[in-house]
Each structure stands twice: as C-alpha cells, then as structure tokens.
Amino acid sequence: MRELSNNEVKYINKLYLAKYRKEEKKFIVEGKHLILEAKNAGVLLECYTTDSSFDGTLISEESMRKVCKTNTTVNALGICKLFEAHKLTDKILALDAIQDPGNLGTLMRSAKAFGFDTILLGRGTVDIYNDKVIRSSQGAIFKLNFINDEIKEFMHDHPEYEYYGTDVKTGSEAEAIKPSKRFAIILGNEGNGMQEGLKTLTKANIYIPLINTESLNVSVAGSILMYLYK
Amino acid sequence: MRELSNNEVKYINKLYLAKYRKEEKKFIVEGKHLILEAKNAGVLLECYTTDSSFDGTLISEESMRKVCKTNTTVNALGICKLFEAHKLTDKILALDAIQDPGNLGTLMRSAKAFGFDTILLGRGTVDIYNDKVIRSSQGAIFKLNFINDEIKEFMHDHPEYEYYGTDVKTGSEAEAIKPSKRFAIILGNEGNGMQEGLKTLTKANIYIPLINTESLNVSVAGSILMYLYK
Questions:
Q1: What value of ipTM does the predicted structure carry?
Q2: Are B211 and A106 an interchain contact pair (Cβ–Cβ within 8 Å)?
Q3: Taking a C-beta distance cutoff of 8 angstroms, is the pair A108, A80 a contact?
Q4: Cβ contact B140–A223 (<8 Å)
Q5: Distance from CA of B182 to the nearest CA of A (A)
Q6: Please, are residues B206 and B174 in contact by the beta-carbon 8 Å criterion?
Q7: Which tens digits make up the pLDDT trace of B96-137?
C-alpha cells in the first residue's frame, strides 16, 4: 500500500474539470461496478483501490479521500481514456443542449434499454464525462456510441435517417408516428425546448398528450418516446 | 424595504430541515413561479421578496441571500402551510421508499400529467417538502393529493382498489395489463426495488421489457407505466 504523491492528487483532481479531461483525453470513474464496466469497454487505463482483493494499485484510505468526489468514500477509482466514435446505429437519440447531468445520465440508461445505441451530442449539451452523468447512467455510458456534432450539420450529412423533433405546442401525437428503420429523435433543452431552426427540418415534431400540465421532465419525455419506438 | 432580523433568518433556515417543518407545520418555496402556484393552492402564508413589483414583504438582497438555498439568488421566498389530505382519486401512485428528491419531484410532475392525482407516500420515502423535491416537481406538488401511510395497511383498508407492483425479474409485461377504474401502481426503492412482502398482495407485478439492461431509472419506469395506464 502506498500514498498518492501531491502531484498525483493534483493530476487526478484536475480530471474532474471538463477542460482538463479534454486536454488529457482522460476521465474518472468511481466505484468497483463502474470500473469493471470501463474495463469491459476497453477504456480503463489505471485503477487505484483501497481494497487489496480488487485489481489495481493499492493506496491508503487517506489518499483515496483526497481524490474521490462522492460523499461516501469509494474504495476504487479508475482513470479511463475518452471514447472513440463507432459506426452509426439504426436508432439515434439526438440531444439539443441538454444541460442537467442527471437528465443526461438517465437518458443514456433508457437509450441503452430501448436500443437507441448512438447518442448525438448537440452543442450546449453537458459533458458526458461529468461525474454526475456517469453515476446516473449506471454504466450505460460504457455501452453507447457518442457523436459530437451540430445537429443541423449531422442532419445534412446523413439524409438516410428520418428525423423527429419534439414540440409540446404544435407537434403530432406520439402514437400516430411510425418511424422507419433508421431514425433519430431530437430532444430539446430543459428550459427552452428544441431550437426553432430545427423544427422545419424534421419529418415531424412529436408531443406526448398531457393532462393540465405543460411539460414532462425531458428524460421522462425522451424515455417514453424511446419506449414507444423501441 | 427592511432587513430580516437574526431570529427571522434563523427561523426560516430551520424550515429547510424536515424535523422543523414537521414541528412548525410549514415549508418553504423559492421563486415567483412556485410562490404563485402555492398561492393558487391556498397554502401560502407569507412571502418575502426583493422585487417591489411582487406581492410580499420587501426585504434587502442581503437578507434574501441569508435565507434562500438555491445558488442563484432568488427574488422571492414563500412560507407555506403543509398540505392536507383530500379525497382519494381513481388512480394512485404508491411509493415504497423512493429516496432521491429528484426522482420524487419528477414522478410528481409525471403523475399530474397522466392523471395519477393521489400519491401514497410509503415509509422511507423522502420528505415531499424537501426543497429539491419541490423544485424538480415544477409546481406539480401543489396540484396533487398526498397520503402518508404504510402501503400494506393502505391496501388492507382500501380493497376497492386494484394494486399493481413492479418487479424487473418475475413480472407481467406492462402492455399485457389492463387496470380497472380504480387502481394503484407501486414503485420500489432505487436500489432494492419494492419490498418482497408486497409482491404476493398485488393483483400483478409489472415489468417493462428492456434490451440487455437490468433496469431503468425509477422515475422513468414509473412515468412509462403511468403513460400506458393514463
């Protein structure tokens, strides 16, 4: 067992910031469960642990406390390399500036569960390597394909897909829509919805009928649509 | 405009703790939108604001900073009385130890949207007056009927309802279920699911078919079921 050096502590803590993750091309996962998922996905580079039965560099609990972010101290911390984009899948979930880490993680979990294996991350969407995103994805993040692109440009470059927007006011009812084999659902920002400019480019804009309420949480609305079109 | 006294600051801050809310039978809402919802619901007792155009006691921004909990300073803070239970509605959402405030708030929002107007709060469920619950409910909390009871006792006292549990392993497929007019859906704890003891008391236990994944976020799963049985 050893102590982490000050430089190691500093280096790991920097990886909690989006800017340094991008520079270093690395991100952090906490807890054995997520580390095993990262290992299976082939992105785990290093592992520090306080548990001698777990595979990794054994460090002291004091050292662990200096580098883990969750309140309850974890017994393992992994450093991973960023994901590479893979081949597009038939079903795509496109996110237009989803800002809440919990919403993004929850959407990943549902996307995996309903077969939307590619996620298009439009501009303004929260960093997928954010620790809260990873935690709320419950490991789904390691099983998805991520594309970073402007949604409008992606639509232009990929006319082989059908695109469905979401619009609480002037849309088509969700159950009336029958998507073809290759399609994308576009979800909008928590406060402002989908950019106006995309609405005329989609095949249809969808809404979910609600009783005396304006809207659902975006991760709920997106999950209901993915469930319907699974 | 006036400053809040030290006693007032202390009193308001105590209301962020469940224990004092229960003692004082009061809770806090932040922001004009929620305060107006509270007023419409007839539970608003007092309002403090830094905005002279808003109805309430005008206080300084410094005073407001001492009593508001959200990071971005709000311009209005309301003190409300706790809700009273009303007549049971036909559709009930029963919560068996839902612990995450964001999940509870999101479920309230979906329950309102899909006509599940009574929420049965089983033992171990997070306090509905928690500030994060109120924020993520987006005002839906003021339009619902809450019952505090052991789920098992409620089931015993209300045999006029059909009860549907949730069970990822041995359940019936969601779309095969056709509930009658009066029914309750029971959602289980984030980590452990529904108590084993309830499973034999329900008419059926429901699961949502998933691809290569164990489970959905509970607020997503509950919302999909409420959508299907709306």
A1: 0.93
A2: no
A3: no
A4: no
A5: 18
A6: yes
A7: 999 999 999 999 999 999 999 999 999 999 999 999 999 999
